[in-house]
Amino acid sequence: MKKYYFLITNIVLISLLISCKNKKFTEVVEVPLPTAQEKVSIGFPDDVKADPGSFQLEKLPYPYDALAPTVSPLTLETHYSKHYLTYTNNLNELIAGTEYENQSIENILSKLDLNNADLRNNAGGYYNHSLYWKSMAPNTGGKPTDTLASVINRDFGSYENFVTSFKAEATNQFGSAWTWLIVDKYGKLKVTSTQNQDNPLMKNAAIPGTPILALDLWEHAYYLGYQYRRRNYIDSFFNVINWKKINENYEASQRKRY
Ligand code: FE2
Question: Which of 9, 65, 100, 246 is paired with 254 by a 20 to 30 Å CA distance?
Answer without folding.
Answer: 100
